[in-house]
Amino acid sequence: MIFLSASVPTPGKENYYETADAMAIHAAVRAAILVIAPKVRLVWGGHPAVTTMVHHTIGRMSPESREQLTMYQSEYFKSVFLKEQQFFKHVHSVPETPDKKISITRMRHQMIEENKFKAAIFIGGMKGVEKEYEIFRHAHPEAMLLPVASTGAAAKIIYEKMDSQPDERLLYDYEYIPLFQSLLQEYL
């Protein structure tokens, strides 16, 4: 399994928006789906922008590849679930709590800790992507971590603060399909 943590920063949300490259975020998410889903399970949290990107991408994929996609979602958001969510066969609903932050934190921990991941990709994002990175690196210390710094935002912050720098192509390579094929080849 491979974990995907991504979002598109919104204006006014700290400094994430200033470095974010929305086109690169979209291209990287699409490439991750196209490279990973035909081979292994891809797991992500139900962020609305990313869920919409996944939905648009799977329309061109085989039914077998679509089977490899697993989305986690907190029941806290049930009143605003996207219609696209109904097209995913594997949706794990995490029980809500009255508090939004606690509901999201519970969903993140369950999503990351109940699965055995070989790698994680971090694309764009804001504080939530940084939180998922922290949870993931503690839960899966041997897994490959790929913060796609070229997408900016949280992914760039994660890349810069890592103890051992991952492949420098994550900083400048916008050819995401061959990049992911190369970096993830032993897991696909």
Quick description:
With 188 residues, the chain is an alpha/beta fold.
Task: Please characterize this protein's 3D structure.
By secondary structure, the chain is α/β, with parallel strands linked by helices. The chain has one domain (2-187): Rossmann fold. It contains nine helices and six strands; from the N terminus they run E-H-H-E-H-H-E-E-H-E-H-E-H-H-H. It has a six-stranded parallel β-sheet, with helices on both faces. Helix 6 links the parallel strand 5 (119-124) and strand 6 (144-148). Helix 2 packs across helix 9 and helix 5 (100-113) runs parallel beside helix 6 (127-139). It is globular and about 40 Å long. The model has no long low-confidence stretch (mean pLDDT 90).
Q: Give the percentage of residues in beta strands.
A: 15-25%
Radius of gyration: 15 Å
The total count of helices amounts to 9
Regions with pLDDT < 50 over 5+ consecutive residues? none
Order of helices and strands: EHHEHHEEHEHEHHH
Topology (elements, then pairings):
Layout: E1 2-7, H1 16-19, H2 22-36, E2 42-45, H3 48-58, H4 63-66, E3 69-74, E4 90-94, H5 100-113, E5 119-124, H6 127-139, E6 144-148, H7 153-161, H8 169-172, H9 176-183
Parallel strand pairs: 1-2, 1-5, 2-3, 3-4, 5-6
Features:
single chain; 188 residues; alpha/beta; Rossmann fold; six-stranded parallel β-sheet; 6 strands; 44% helix
